Amino acid sequence: MLEILRNIVQEVNSAENLAQALEIIVVRVRDAMGTEVCTVYMRDPASGRFVFQATDGLNKDLLGQASLAAGEGLVGRVAEREEPLNLERAPAHPSFRLLPGIGEEDFSAFLGVPIIHQREVLGVLVVQQREQRRFDESEEAFLVTMSAQLAAVIVHVRVTGAVYLGKDEARPPVPTKINGIAGAPGIAIGTAVVVSPVADLYAVPSRQTHDRLGELRAFKKALQAVRGDIEIVASQLGSQLNPEEHALFDVYLRILDDATIGTEVASRIKGGEWAQGALSQVMIEHIQHFERMEQSYLKERAVDVKDLGTRVLAYLQSTEQGQPDYPDATILVGEELTATVLGEIPREKLVGIISVRGSGNSHVAILARAMGVPTVMGAVDLPYTKLEDQELIIDGYYGEVYLNPDEDFRKRFEDMRAEDAALSHDLESLRDEVCETLDKHRMPLWVNTGLMADVARSLDQGAEGVGLYRTEVPFLLRECFPIEEEQRQIYRSQLEAFAPKPVTMRTLDIGGDKSLPYFPIEEENPFLGWRGIRVTLDHPEIFLAQIRAMIKASEGLDNLRIMLPMICNVAEVDEAIEFIHRAHSEVLDEGSAVKLPPIGVMVEVPAAVYQARVLARKVDFLSVGSNDLTQYLLAVDRNNARVAGLYHTFHPAVLHALQAVADAAHLEGKQVSICGELAGNPAAAVLLLAMGYDVLSMNATNLTKVKKAVRNVTLEQAKNALSAVMQLDSARQIEEYLQQFLLDSGLQGFIHPRLD
Ligand code: PEP
Ligand code: MG
Q1: Closest atom, ligand 1, to C-alpha of 624
Q2: Three-state SS across 427-495?
Q3: What structural domains and CATH numbers belong to the chain?
Q4: Which residue puts its alpha carbon closest to atom 1 of ligand 1?
Q5: What is the mean predicted confidence (pLDDT) over 562-573?
Q6: What proportion of the chain, given as a percentage, has pLDDT over 70?
C-alpha cells in the first residue's frame, strides 16, 4: 500500500502542470482502488465553487464546466464539513444532487475526501462504484492518506505550471501568489538568481545558456571523467571483488555508455538549457522511471542512476567558471540559504531573499533584517529550481511571493516601496536625536551585530552600544575554527569601532540551526540538543581561546562585556565564570593590563526565567534572548515553517515572562536588557520601556523606527498600554490593541496594509 502511495505521489510530482497532475491522480487512484470512477473537483478561488476538473469514468466533455457550491451536493458537503463521506447508496442521501450530463446516475457507492493544504480546502477527491456497498476502512484510510499527501503536491504543481506559463509566449502569464513567512520587512521587485547546494541533482536550477557548444563539451568531458574514475576503481579493486560486485561496475559503465541518456542530455543542451540543468532533468526522469518499476532489481537501478548523475554533476560543477553574473536587482532564491551565500553577493545588487526552508527567526532571516533586505522564508510551495531569471515581487511584511504580476498590481507594490523609502528618509533625521519619551525618560538603544558591515550601519543610525555581537557569524564564514590571534583581530575591530561605547560579545552560540561546516552537529532534535554554552563548556579549548581573544582585544579600550548564551542552570554560570577568570589571569600573566569585563547571562529558556533572580545575583547583567525564549515557552520551533503561525511574539506568556525577568534583575540591582528581535518592534519597544528594561538592543535597521515610537509617547502612556495588554488573553487581542495604539500615537507609517 505504502509503495503504491509513494509511486503515485512521485508521478504526480513530476507533472508539469495541474491538468496533467490531476489526470495522473484520477487514473492511478481508480486503478489502485479498483473502482469504476475517480474524479477530482477543484475549488475555484474566484467563485469558491468546486469545479468538475478531472475524471476517469465520467463524462469528460463537461470538465471545467460543471460545478457545485460549498455545501451543495455530496461534494460540497465533503468540502464544507472537511471530512470524508462514505455512502453505500449515494442517490438516497438527502444532500445528493445530480450534476446533469456528467453521467453519475448509475453509481451507487460513493467515497469523497477533502484535499486540504494548510487548513484550506483545495478540492475533493471522489471514487464511485456501481455496486451498492460501503467502502471498507482500509479503502477509506487509503484515500484519506492519498489526499493528504497529494494536497502539497497539487499546490506545488499548480505553481510550477504558472512558472511555465510565464515563459511561454503563446499563453498569457498567470499571476500567482506563494505564501511563506515574513523574514525581513520591505518590498522588493527583482530578478531571481537560484542558489543551489553542490552535487544535488534535485536542486539544479533550469538556466538558459548562450554557449551551447561549450556546455556540450563540458558535459562530454564530465561523462568521460566519471567513466575513467569507475574504470580505475574497478581495476584497483580487481581481485577483491566477487563476480556479482564486478557486475555492478559493468552496469555503471553501461548506464554511462547508454546512448539514450547521453543523447537526451545533449539534445536539451542544444535546445538552450545549460549542461547541469539538462543533466539533472534527464537523470531525474530516468530515476523516476526506474523507481516506478515493479521488479525490485530494476527499482534498485534508480539508486545507481542517481549516483552516476550526481558524479557527473559534481564534475560539471567543479569546472564551472567563477561567480554567476548577478543582475542589478537580484533576488536570491534557494532551498536553504546560509549566511555564507549572503556574504558572496555584492550588497548593492541584492534587493531580496527567498528561502524555501526556515522561518522568521532563523538566523538567515535575522541577518537579512540586519542588512535591511526584504525576505520571505518558508516558501515551501515554491518550485525554486524553475525560477531562474523570472521577475518576482516579494512582500517581506506578510511573507508573500508573487510571480507574473500584472501591471496594475506591480504598480501598487512600486508605490508601497516608494512610501517605505520616504519613511526611512524621514526617520534618518532622528539619527542624532536622543531616545527619550515625551516626558524625558531615557531609553538607550543598542544594536545587534555580527558582520563587519553592520558596524558602519549601526554607528550611522546612532547606536549607543552593542547589546549582542553574535561571534558565531565570523566562525560561520570560515573553513575551520579561527585561531586565537585571528579572533583577537576580529573582536578588536568591533571594540575599536564602537569605543568608548560598550560592546557585548556573546560566547560562541552554535548548534540549533547554526552548525559550522567544519564542526557538524547532527541531532534528531537540535534545538533541545547540544547548543550554545553546552558545546563550549564541553570544549574548554574552544571556549578559553575565545575568551582570551576577547579580553586581549579589549586592551586599552575596556568597553568589552561578555555574555553567555543558553544558560539553563547555575552550574553552567559558575563553570563559565571560572573559565573567564582563568582566561583573564592568563592574559594578565602574559603581561597585558586588562580589566575583567562585566559578565552577563542570556535568559533564553523558561528555566532561566524562574531562576532569573539567582542568576542575576551571580553576574553583572541579564539580557533576554526573546527569539529563543519564545520558541521554548511556546514549544514552537523557530525554524519550522509549518508551525510559524504559532510563533506568537506577543503571546501573553512571553510578555509575563519578560516582566518577571525585568523585576528579578532589578530586585538584585542589576541591569536588564533585551536583544531578541522583539526589541526592534516599535510597539513592543513601548511595552518593554514600561516594563522597566534598561536597554533595548536590535537590528540597526529598526533603530530609528523604535526611536520614533519612544519619542512619541510619555512613560505614563506606555505604562497604561502595558497594563491594558497584560489583562488580555491572547496574542491576537494584544496585536489588535497595539495596532490601535500605534494609530492613536500617530505612528500609522509602521502599519503595513496587505496589498492583494
Ligand atoms: C535570541 O535567542 O533571542 C537571541 C538574541 O539569540 P539568537 O537569535 O542568536 O539565538
Ligand atoms: Mg538565542
Answers
A1: 3
A2: HHCCCCCCCECCCCCECCEEEEECCHHHHHHHHHCCCCCEEEEECHHHHHCCCCCCCHHHHHHHHHHHH
A3: 2-167 (3.30.450.40), 176-194+323-405 (3.50.30.10), 199-316 (1.10.274.10), 471-597 (3.20.20.60)
A4: 625
A5: 98
A6: 94
